[in-house]
Amino acid sequence: MVNNMGGWVEPIDAYLDRKYEELKLLNSCLRRPLSLIRPRSIGEVIGRKFQLTASIRAEHELEAWTATETAWSSLDRGRFGPFRFKYDYQRADLEVEGPSVYDFSGEITWDTVYTGSGMAAISALLLASAHVLGRADILVLPSTYGESLELIDRYAGHLRKVVVKNGLDNKLAGAGIRRILLLDFCAPDGAFEATLRSAGRSLDLLVFDTTCFMGSSGRIRRVLRWARHWNIPTVMVRSHNKLDSLGAEYGRLGSASFVRPASAVAGPDPKLNDLLSETRNAIRLFGGAALPAHFPPYIGDDSYRSLTSRRVAAILRNSRRTNRYFRPDLKGPVRELHFAHGLYVTLSSRQPLNEAVARSAAARMAEDLGRAGLPIRHAGSFGFDFAAVEWFRDVLTEEYSVRIAVPDLPTKQWDDLTIAIGRWWLSHLQSLGAA
User: Fold this and answer.
1) 304-428, what's its fold?
2) 123/232 Cα distance (integer angstroms)
3) pLDDT tens-place string over residues 286-307
4) In CATH, what number does 81-294 get?
5) For residue 327, what are the contacts with CB-CB under 8 A and spacing of at least 6?
6) How far is CA 388 from the centre of its chain?
7) pLDDT tens for residues 371-425?
8) Beta strand extents in 107-240 (DSSP E only)
9) Phi and psi at residue 76, to the nearest 5°
């Protein structure tokens, strides 16, 4: 196979300098900073980053030991880093003041409720929608995040799932039937773009999962402009344990942000207000409130946005190189290269994989390539400083594949790992029983 990836190359020294800045930012969050030197290897970057985030959490626990669930102490327990918290028993009424990951320069305002994970946020929202919207069609795109679809199928009995592939067809909207669009960046890029070229006049609510793009992304802003043009009430849901934590998975944290244009002097849509209230109730009753210790204290730092932008840009550059390499050389074994988010690709075979084979392939690939000293792990998330490989199921088609989450690595090292992944996949198709 010929390396035809092309494009701009980030040298290892520039990468290590950038990572040193990330480590210094993390270290600055400690009351007792650790001794820190410029990392000399990728492995040192990864290990030091997880050590620092563990130290931040540990220091917080030692200093906030009086903050029990029953609040037996009268000591102030309401601050961590740039965040202030107010809550009573079990954080059921948690109020948070502090910096947001979203940055849209006054274009919109929003009310945010925080949860213990991204799935807790979308679960509370969709269950709350039963009390505000009643029975409705929920429109989803191909490759929509699998657990979101599973949630709809198993627990949102008031919602009828409708798959849309080539844009919204408003003619299908029946009289009196409410329509919710669930939009996330897991969809293929073509389906995502077709949706934004469609008219949204028949939609009663947009549930917009922003997890796969950084909070200041222009593509998020574009979706919000589209929703504003069609006057669609919008809620942004997000898992913050991905791109918002500098690749360190700081702590489980999610949110639902109820959006309105900054120019809307009359206030939020009444239904959106009702939905916000019901979502708060669902979070309280299902015990889904966030933990104050899981708010990354470095989010409010001036350098945070710049470093996050550079991390995400490096991941997207590496992803484009992977696409250019896999497209001609793997052909049939590639399942999907062009997700709207650009954060991972999926590999399959000319004959379908089953769950057992996909699981085994992911574990074996990570083990074999990791044993060879390559920065790859068997992990079910993305946005790391190492490649993450995991089995993957498309809930809509019931087809299985193996997902490769593209990391923030220096260009040559990622190119080498991309080649190794491709060679491993082609050489193991026979033994996987899928050739």
Assistant:
1) Aspartate Aminotransferase, domain 1 (3.90.1150)
2) 20
3) 999 999 889 999 997 889 999 9
4) 3.40.640.10
5) 334, 337
6) 14
7) 999 999 999 899 999 999 999 888 778 888 899 999 999 999 999 999 999 999 9
8) 108-115, 136-140, 159-163, 178-184, 205-209, 234-239
9) -65, 125
